[in-house]
Design goal:
The complex is a heterodimer of chains A (125) and B (497). With 125 residues, chain A is an alpha+beta fold. Helices cover 19% and strands 35% of the residues of chain A. Chain A has a 6-stranded antiparallel sheet. Chain A has a 3-stranded antiparallel sheet with strand order 4-6-7, with no helix packed on it. In chain B, strands 1-7-6-5-4-2-3 form a 7-stranded mixed sheet, sandwiched between helices. In chain B, strands 10-12-11 form a 3-stranded antiparallel sheet, with helices on one face. Chain B has a two-stranded antiparallel sheet with strand order 8-9. The chains are: A alpha+beta (125), B alpha/beta (497). The interface between A and B is small, with 11 and 11 residues.
Chain lengths: 125, 497
């Protein structure tokens, strides 16, 4: 799928705006680096996070990694399908592998995130 | 294990339950010479099983052969090279085992009277004294039963020290190359982990440290040499900065092997540290223990050591010169039952006495020599992210091999085909495709050269025939295991179907 309408962070999260809410997940590059994902710890719905706070924890066969909130907001929904099938992050990182739906505090905060082209450049570095 | 691919050309040993045959006996009991008692009468019906448990039934030679075959399938340091970085998998001298099996030690009950256990208490006292001398610490408690337990004890001492001064403080700094147990231990002790980045040489970024320390900094936890096998050459500055805000400096002793007889952490300003007797002092480990993680401190922290500390007082009373000292009102208390893992201490004590001060120094020198020899021979074939001399271990990256689709995990698996244990992979986290190699001092040049040849062959295979590496291992009793299923659907018990 195209990632042109997504925004990205240096720490390999992606964010997709849908109205005032944003879907957040882990990038294809990051899932490839982590390897097979075996466990995802999702936040409680209603939690408020600031940009840079730990949003979820992802455990792969290699390591445990923290996933950070790209922007501040309130957790509206989490992808419970990941409880049983964390490998959705490996197989469909930009679709069925989404992790959290966040109501973004300040829509303009998204503007500072990387574009798809910036991110591609970032992962080459 | 689930997900194992069956190899028709190799016999995979059945479980002992599958080898069972009804009525077989390994041992026959003599006729009962006391009146039989019905357990229901004594314990009540609800406490007694309705049917006998499903124990395997085999003859003694069947049992011996089963476990011998399993042992043959296993890889261990008595069988081959074991370069598992940061674990110091050195050879375990057999004399240590002999000493630890002396009946005076094995048959001694931990609650035996002091007067009847003077030998064991003297051993513990002397071992703690030697560890203090080796490390430059003032006093050592042998209580913690593992490295991470030593870390937790250390963090509880940090908390007790600051609490005594009016404020426990809230933060402990850990480098991004730290063992994962460091942030876990400080979190358990109620602190918040503050991560500090490594600079381009793989060392703590001292300027960044200067920025992040403040009056809430309770301590910094430093592994030296660090997990990249790099000595923190600015350690004196690091210690000065943390001491400058009233914080304590903790040394994770996992890599003490590189310092034995050369550097005494207490002399360069560390306030406390733990030892891994099961790494540095050659007692066997792996497979869950037992370990021993004594904690040593300088004079300002001795009041907080976990008790009992094994003390000596010649004038105390006749025949009880050595005794467990519980008269330590500020102690953080016990962190393990009774005295800790005693027989591990016996092995470590035997090791220290066998080598003596000069021998311990040669351990470190040879560990460094062996690691640098391997690093120099392999750096042309694998990426070496942090250049220069290493200490007792070094970290390669399989990034060059990755261009051919071969990852660090594949290199590790391929090593198994050549009778070499896989190195630590994907750690430290700051190196992508990390292969962390620690040969230890106990390997001969011949075994190091064998490893070098194998690693170079795998690098060549990765270019010419990557499938053989990504499909490895092919010569082990089972081939590549399904690690996802092994962690998601872990099922280690066997049930008759």
């Amino acid at each position: 799928m195209s990632t042109q309408d997504l925004r990205f962070t240096q720490s390999h999260e992606w964010l997709k705006m849908e109205g005032a809410e944003a879907l957040i997940g882990l990038t294809d590059y990051a899932q490839g680096e982590l390897g097979d994902i075996v466990f995802v710890e999702l936040p409680a719905v209603g939690t408020h996070v600031d940009a840079g706070d730990v949003l979820t924890t992802v455990e792969s066969v290699k390591s445990v990694s923290e996933i950070y909130a790209p922007v501040a907001g309130e957790v509206m929904d989490v992808n419970v399908a990941l409880d049983d099938n964390p490998d959705l992050i490996n197989s469909a990182p930009y679709a069925e592998g989404w992790m959290v739906r966040l109501r973004v505090d300040d829509a303009s905060s998204v503007d500072s995130l990387m574009t798809a082209d910036d991110y591609e450049e970032h992962t080459k570095g | 294990m689930s997900g194992a691919t069956e190899r028709p050309d190799l016999v995979v040993e059945p479980t002992i339950f599958e080898l069972s045959s009804p009525g077989r006996r390994g041992y026959s009991f003599p006729p009962l010479d006391v009146p039989p008692v019905d357990p229901v009468e004594i314990f009540g019906e609800d406490q007694v099983r309705g049917e006998a448990p499903d124990f395997p039934e085999l003859t003694e030679p069947e049992v011996v052969r089963h476990f011998t075959r399993l042992a043959e399938m296993n890889h261990h340091v008595d069988r081959g090279f074991y370069p598992l970085g940061s674990c110091t998998m050195k050879y375990n001298p057999k004399v240590n085992e002999d000493v630890a099996q002396l009946p005076g030690f094995t048959r001694l009950h931990p609650e035996a009277d002091e007067a009847h256990s003077q030998g064991a208490l003297a051993l513990m006292h002397n071992l703690a004294t030697h560890l203090a001398a080796i490390s430059g610490m003032d006093e050592v408690s042998l209580q913690p039963p593992a490295g991470a337990s030593g870390e937790l004890a250390g963090m509880l001492i940090v908390r007790a020290y600051h609490t005594d001064r009016g404020n426990p403080r809230s933060k402990v700094i850990v480098p991004d190359s730290a063992h994962g147990t460091n942030p876990a231990s400080l979190t358990l002790a109620g602190y918040e982990a503050v991560e500090i980045k490594s600079d381009s040489s793989g060392r703590v970024d001292v300027d960044e440290l200067r920025r992040i320390v403040d009056s809430e900094t309770a301590a910094i936890m430093i592994t030296n040499p660090n997990t990249l096998g790099v000595f923190e050459s600015r350690i004196a500055e690091i210690i000065e900065i943390v001491h400058g805000v009233g914080g304590l400096v903790y040394m994770d002793g996992a890599n003490l092997n590189a310092l034995l007889g050369i550097v005494r952490p207490g002399e360069i300003g560390f306030d406390l540290m733990h030892f891994n007797l099961h790494k540095t002092f050659s007692s066997p480990h792996g497979g869950g223990g037992p370990g021993s993680g004594p904690i040593g401190v300088t004079s300002k922290l001795v009041d907080y050591l976990p008790y009992p500390v094994i003390a000596r007082d010649e004038a105390r009373s006749r025949g009880v010169e050595y005794y467990p000292d519980y008269e330590r009102p500020k102690s953080i208390g016990k962190v393990h039952g009774v005295y800790g893992n005693f027989l591990v201490m016996v092995k470590a004590y035997a090791y220290i006495l066998t080598l003596g001060p000069g021998g311990l120094r040669r351990v470190a020198e040879n560990a460094l020599l062996n690691a640098n020899y391997l690093q120099r021979k392999l750096e042309g074939h694998y990426e070496l992210p942090f250049k220069g001399y290493c200490q007792h271990e070094f970290v390669l990256s399989a990034s060059r091999q990755k261009e051919y689709g071969v990852k660090a995990l594949d290199v590790a698996k391929r090593l198994l085909d050549f009778g070499v244990h896989a190195p630590t992979v994907y750690f430290p986290l700051i190196v992508s495709e990390a292969l962390m190699i620690e040969p230890t001092e106990t390997e001969s040049k011949r075994s190091l050269d064998h490893f070098i040849r194998v690693m170079i062959d795998i690098a060549r295979e990765s270019e010419s025939n990557p499938e053989i590496v990504t499909g490895a291992p092919s010569r082990t009793p089972v081939s590549r295991l399904d690690e996802v299923r092994a962690s998601k659907d872990l099922d280690v018990s066997w049930r008759r179907r």
